[in-house]
């Protein structure tokens, strides 16, 4: 481990997704100094990887990138990317003390100018998880086109030390022997916004355990629909055919005790409807089906969005899908129990999208004293009246880390957490001044 | 300045030597992978030199699974080697960039 550095700020924000960025911007705009610790090589979280957002159908990239840039350029915000939060505790003076491990990028962040010469010349192609693994990136690359910061990252497990990247780098930024760095952060308050992650396709044996090429996750479909997606259009991953029949399978891993996820993810109904609408625009003659248990259109304008989708001809089938199997010529066979007409029915589709379970993105156990509920999401003493409060005084939580929610609610909650954190900062600063 | 650069290059050589010794296994594995990848790229671009082809056509010609061919087409398109061409039935044809 490299040198240990201690940095002091008014506020620490854990997680650089949309909730973390909103909290950081709200605090920084009140002139508090903020550090954002992000696990990934870029800020932006799940939202920057989406195509469009419901129910407004705004381009996700177009509305997330300005927030990312605002955070990156804010005088009062420091971004620490590619960093894991190892521990976070309150010291005897009530300050938050966090230990962060900055993973090596094998690239000097200060020297890299994001020109991508290393990426263009690297000879090693590796699957790109930011494109749903549908295309390659290189062993050294800028994570994605609108990543912030625009700094390359090398994967040492896919590097053969050929030296090409160092040779072509115009600023000498490649550091093959870079070491992880330990950073200690001291702050008066913290906001935890660590988001959610999606359960893997492999977890669902009845749906092919990830072995059927044309059964994909909803986040993979986001990439197929995104303007900078892997194919720049929607194609079937097994052979590049433009699909004629696409099905969405809802609750494919949530509301299911056998999967250990008995709760509803809240967002799947709406993103499936959104994706179905985008697909009907991209593939006007395709048949689109949504197999659902109930449609939960709970937010402002959501019911109308659902009704619009029906009017557009998207077929909603009230059914529980029991089995998904590979069919002939890349087709996918879906066997389901029809809950309106009764009986078991089989249908064939070119592409099937699963709304898999969503779980917390980070577990505080062993890292800090925050508590979680039975579902693993961060819990607090007043879930009804002060949902952003945690059991630790001065540490607040927001977004999907507290419980699954959509972008609108995540942003609103992040602003609420920032307000609580600002109030707390004000009282702490007054107390410290009184002591001085 | 010249001296400094020379020293830096000398250090880099030593660093690379030590790293290559420590990561022998990874280097061997990735080098074999790159060799294989170069062969695949050559076979796909070789096929496209004959004219625009769809993914199943390329797969048939080069003996790879269509999904592997699509992965390579998407990747080569990203790095400017391949371009999307006309649609032929339900499939798009791809061609080499100039």
From TrEMBL, chain A:
Its cofactor is FAD. PANTHER family: COB--COM HETERODISULFIDE REDUCTASE IRON-SULFUR SUBUNIT A, FERREDOXIN:COB-COM HETERODISULFIDE REDUCTASE SUBUNIT A. InterPro entries: 4Fe4S_Fe-S-bd, 4Fe4S_Fe_S_CS, FAD-dep_OxRdtase, FAD/NAD-bd_sf, HdrA-like. It comes from the Bacteria. Belongs to the HdrA family. One of its GO terms (molecular function) is 4 iron, 4 sulfur cluster binding. This is Heterodisulfide reductase subunit A. It comes from Desulfacinum infernum DSM 9756. Residues 103-132, 150-179 form the 4Fe-4S ferredoxin-type domain. Keywords: 4Fe-4S, FAD, Flavoprotein, Iron, Iron-sulfur, Metal-binding, Oxidoreductase. Pfam families: DAO, Fer4_7.
Automatic annotation (TrEMBL), chain B:
It comes from the Bacteria. InterPro entries: WH_DNA-bd_sf. This is Winged helix-turn-helix DNA-binding. It comes from Desulfacinum infernum DSM 9756. The lineage of its organism: Bacteria, Pseudomonadati, Thermodesulfobacteriota, Syntrophobacteria, Syntrophobacterales.
């Amino acid at each position: 481990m490299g040198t240990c550095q201690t940095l002091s700020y008014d506020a620490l924000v854990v997680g650089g997704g949309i909730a973390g960025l909103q909290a950081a911007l709200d605090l920084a705009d009140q002139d508090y100094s903020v550090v954002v610790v992000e696990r990934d090589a870029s800020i932006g979280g799940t939202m920057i990887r989406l195509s469009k957002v419901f129910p407004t159908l705004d381009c996700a990239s177009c509305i997330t990138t300005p927030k990312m840039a605002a955070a990156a350029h804010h005088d009062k915000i420091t971004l620490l990317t590619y960093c894991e939060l190892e521990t976070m505790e309150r010291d005897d003076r009530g300050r938050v003390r966090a230990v962060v491990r900055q993973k090596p990028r094998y690239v000097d962040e200060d020297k890299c100018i994001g020109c991508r010469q290393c990426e263009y010349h690297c000879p090693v192609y590796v699957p790109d998880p930011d494109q749903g693994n549908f295309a390659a990136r290189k062993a050294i690359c800028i994570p994605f086109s609108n990543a912030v910061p625009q700094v390359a990252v090398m994967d040492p497990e896919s590097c053969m030390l050929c030296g090409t990247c160092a040779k072509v780098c115009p600023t000498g930024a490649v550091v093959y022997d870079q070491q992880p760095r330990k950073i200690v952060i001291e702050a008066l308050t913290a906001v935890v916004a660590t988001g959610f992650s999606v359960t893997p396709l492999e977890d669902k044996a009845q749906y092919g355990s990830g072995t059927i090429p044309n059964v994909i996750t909803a986040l993979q479909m986001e990439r197929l629909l995104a303007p900078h997606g892997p194919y720049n259009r929607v194609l079937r991953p097994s052979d590049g055919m433009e699909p004629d029949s696409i099905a969405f399978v809802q609750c494919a891993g949530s509301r299911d005790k056998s999967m250990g996820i008995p709760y509803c993810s809240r967002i799947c109904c709406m993103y499936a409807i959104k994706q179905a609408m985008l697909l009907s625009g991209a593939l006007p003659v395709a048949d689109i089906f949504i197999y659902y248990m109930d449609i939960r259109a709970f937010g402002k304008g959501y019911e109308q969005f659902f009704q619009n989708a029906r009017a557009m001809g998207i077929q909603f089938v009230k059914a529980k899908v029991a089995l998904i199997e590979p069919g002939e010529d890349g087709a996918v066979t879906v066997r389901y129990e029809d809950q309106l007409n009764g009986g078991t029915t089989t249908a064939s589709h070119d592409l099937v999208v699963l709304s898999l379970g969503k779980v917390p993105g980070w577990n505080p156990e062993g890292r800090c004293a925050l508590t979680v509920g039975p579902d693993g999401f961060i819990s607090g003493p007043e879930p009804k009246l002060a949902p952003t409060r945690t059991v630790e005084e001065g540490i607040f939580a927001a977004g999907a880390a507290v419980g699954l929610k959509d972008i609108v609610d995540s942003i609103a909650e992040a602003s609420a957490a920032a307000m609580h954190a600002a109030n707390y900062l004000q009282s702490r600063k007054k107390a410290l001044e009184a002591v001085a | 300045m010249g001296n400094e650069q020379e020293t830096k290059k000398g250090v880099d050589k030593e660093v690379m030597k030590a790293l290559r010794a420590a990561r022998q296994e990874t280097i061997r594995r990735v080098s074999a992978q790159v060799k294989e990848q170069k062969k695949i790229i050559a076979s796909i671009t070789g096929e496209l030199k004959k004219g625009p082809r769809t993914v199943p056509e390329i797969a048939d010609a080069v003996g790879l699974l269509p999904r592997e061919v699509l992965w390579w087409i998407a990747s080569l398109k990203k790095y400017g080697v391949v371009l999307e061409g006309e649609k032929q039935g339900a499939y798009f044809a791809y061609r080499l960039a100039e």
